[in-house]
Amino acid sequence: MSNYPVDMSQKPEVTPFFDPATNTISYVVKDPNSKSCAVVDSVMDIDYAAGRITYEHADEIIAYVQEKGLEVEWLIETHVHADHLSAAPYIQEKCGGKLGIGRNITIVQETFGKVFNEGTEFQRDGSQFDRLFDDGDSYEIGGMHCFAMHTPGHTPACMTHVIGDAAFVGDTLFMPDGGSARADFPGGDAGTLYDSIQKVLALPDAMRLFMCHDYGPNGRDIQWETTVDSEKAENIHVGGGKSREEFVEMRTKRDAQLDMPRLILPSLQVNMRGGKMPPKDKDGRQFLKLPVNAL
After folding, report:
1. CATH number for domain 13-265, candidates 3.60.15.10, 3.30.420.40, 3.40.640.10, 2.40.110.10
2. CA 125/CA 67 separation, integer angstroms
3. Which helix (H) or strand (E) holds 194?
């Protein structure tokens, strides 16, 4: 069983927003007894070929929040995403709220600050965020008690956020027929990922689990919600009691065959800054870098 302060009697209202361009699911998580909510893993739109940033997906979330009269208290990033750009600052500007991520964002910033040859003006201390979560740290959404679990392996900064009977796992797990996320990014580790998954699976069996991504394996419709019990029984990578050694061998072989995510280079540059674009040059222009042979 989990050693964390789980309260299954709290049942947040969870509204998903699917972005087909990146197969990302963002969430508005509402306290059922107030107007307070959090936004988890928002998406900023990018036309990579044209170098054009837009906000259709974020505007959909903002419209929902405003239509329902909700109060955004938190903007949560489960990790530094490598496959989509965060819209957290844009939503924060329109709706308020505090921006939070795991404390090990500083490791990611140090690693990719070097990859992108960022100057000394790029702060590597997580100061782009309002709150850096440590393992077990708690916070409130209205009257709901929430806490963050450190679940590294996919990245060093991955956190699972548990809000009542709902847990937002980021890329630590996929739906049972999707398995798990890759662990070969800088700072990732397959064995660490297995250990983190076991922490998630130690939560109560009825805990609702919400995915950050789904790719519709074998042509099925997109899905994003399952339970701890279903993952333990059916997950193709860790279900049925698969051992750490089996998982590491499978994950290592699988990762070696995967291409880099299409948006990894723009995503990391933006997301390590808390969703902000790199600073403008003296002429007011903004650029994203394309490091050659760096990954």
Report:
1. 3.60.15.10
2. 36
3. helix 190-201
**b/e for 20-38, b at 16 or more Cβ within 10 A?**
eebbbbbbbbbbeeeebbb
**Residue 242 is encoded by which pair of tokens?**
């698969």
Q: Which of 213, 208, 203, 148 is nearest to 174 (CA)?
A: 213
Share of the chain above pLDDT 90, in %: 95
Q: Are 81 and 267 in contact (CB under 8 A)?
A: yes
Count of CB atoms within 10 A of residue 81's CB? 26
Q: Which pLDDT score is estimated for 1?
A: 58
Task: Determine the pLDDT at residue 133.
Answer: 98
Instruction: Give the largest Cα separation in the chain, rounded.
Output: 58
Q: Domains of the chain: which residue ranges? A: 13-265
Helices (H) and strands (E) in the chain, counts: 7, 14
Q: DSSP string covering 95-161, please?
A: H--EEEEETTHHHHHHHHHHHTT--TTS--SSTTSSEEEPTT-EEEETTEEEEEEE--SSSTT-EEE
Taking only the tens place, the pLDDT of each residue in 229-245 is 999 999 999 999 999 99
Q: Which of 231, 163, 208 is nearest to 5 (CA)?
A: 163
Instruction: Give the integer Cα–Cα distance in Å for 141 and 146.
Output: 7
* pLDDT averaged per 10 residues, the chain (length 295): 86 98 97 98 96 96 98 98 96 98 96 91 94 97 97 97 98 97 94 98 98 96 98 97 97 95 93 94 93 85
